[in-house]
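Q: Here's a chain of 646 amino acids. Please give me its 3D structure as tokens.
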Amino acid sequence: MQKKRPLYLALILAVITFLLYWPGLGGAFFYDDYSNLNGLSSITNLRQLIEFVFSGHAGPLGRPVALLTFGLQKSYWPGGGEYLLATNVAIHTCNALLVFYLCRQLRMLVGNVDKPSRVDNEFAFIAAAFWALSPILASTSLILVQRMTGLSALFVLLGLLAYLHGYSHFKSHPRRQLVVQAAILGVATLLSALSKENGVLLPSLAFAIELALLRNTIAAKQYRNIRLGVLGLSVVVFLIYLSPFARPWFEINEYRGFSSWERVQGELVILWKYVYLTLFPKVAYFGPFQDQVDLAYSIRAIGLSASAWLLITGIAFALRKKNPWIWFAVLWFLIGHMIESGPLLLEPYFEHRNYIPLLGIAVLFAHASAAAIKHWGQLARLAVYGYLSILAAILLTLTSLWGKPLEAADFWVETNPGSIRAVVHQVNLSLSSNGSALAENYTKTNQFTRTMAAIKLLDKTAQWCKDCLSIHMQAIAYSCIIEPPESVIIRLAKINELLEQSKISIDITSVDGAAVLGSLVANQQCQAIQYSDIEKILNGMLAHEKNATSQGLMARIYYQLATLAYAEQRYEDVEKIISTADEKWPDAQPVIEFRIEYYLRHGSRSAAIQYIRGKIAQQQRNEIQLPRSYVIDLERKLHELEKNEN
């Protein structure tokens, strides 16, 4: 019976965890669910399933392992949300079991014992319960697409548990032990990273365990330096990859609106926010919509946060021999946040980013609880389990809210007034009668939301680069799609004002922006702008020929002017414009193509033939420099025209 007690403890925790998440299974889908999983609706055979699995765009590796689990449940999309979310919760429950056994194994290795004691089991139970019942992790299971996070963590925990068991299974064969452990980490890291890219941190997390906890572990003595060297190298590689040596830390990203350096400073504050919300959770603080969080923290807040991290890391390092658990908790938490809370230009804040890092805090809480119970007995145990019960009650309140989609949507709009996503979600739920209708609405509004965000960021960029014509040209194209005509007219006036300045740079983005506007006008998507407005912009660019980043841009401008004249059937103007362009830039391929096509449609076949012959002759006399492949195409076209002419 005593041998089965740990299993009973773990199973009890698993059942409690699943029951607490049960009310949330009726929850809705969200923005990223639709953008990543809409392809499920089109899967009807094995080939389409494979295409879906390898078509992922959520991360650089595509996350095919996670997408496979969704593909196998395609029949539940989008109407069977409770079954899909139940799978997420089942993964979280399995992870809770793994956390229990992992923490128990850590405690045994630190204590150099082969069999767990009652204290070891209770330590593992408290750590696993704190982790599994933490409200800050609820969104990982209740946002469908975050199954990627839970599944990645599953392979991380399995890999680490198997890695640690290697010490006991191959105790008398240290070389075999080393090889098996390396293979385990390699396979687990691959599977985890193909579920979500955070899995590449697995070797670095193993380094945190080795460095902080296994210093005096007898089973880990042999080849310890090799392990530390190889695993430590993974940390060094990531630090270099994330450092200013490998990426432009101080360059503001136009899409995000901040630089890597600004993000790192802001994340120093946000990491403390994660710790606070873990220890003192409130339902109002948690939810799927965090787009209102920005990095506008004061210098004082950033300085205090940085100082606090340095202080706690220094204290943990100083006490590492006396109390390695503090050192482990700090190392694990910071390493776990190294990718998503570092300089990579991701959105600043999401609760699910704590899914693996939170284990460090959970282990430290279990260690402190074990010490308190040892000194104060049942009173301390009552306090510990009372606190865990409070976490469970808050988690139940939170999952119950998530399980009522309309009520939750109203609550999130109220508590996140600055969140565009929260408002869009509320509107979509109100207008949609079923899962299919909601999916269709989200497909439409996702593009709308991205367009709004793009305009916001472009306008923000234009504030510090007031003479950047390209930024204004991009913004007015987006503005045509979603903003009222009066806003578009204001933007048009600003562009014309810029073009009247004496010095302004003309680049390819500016020129091609005019082409985008022309396309919008042609498709009647921009009622506030006429062809004459675009023509005025292009002529304004021509006036700044000396400031163009390349002379080839001028040929593109003439080409676009000719296109506009053609659209308005001003054929005499077309001939004048294109002839001028051809005279100035005789080897501009777009101009050549336009002129040939124009002759064939509104001139004569013989005129086109004569023109092509002239271009080939210019090439032979070295008067122009056209690519050999393009000359061959001209010769082929000439041959076809001459053949038809005869």
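Q: Can you summarize the key feature?
A: Residues 66 and 204 are 22 Å apart (CA to CA).
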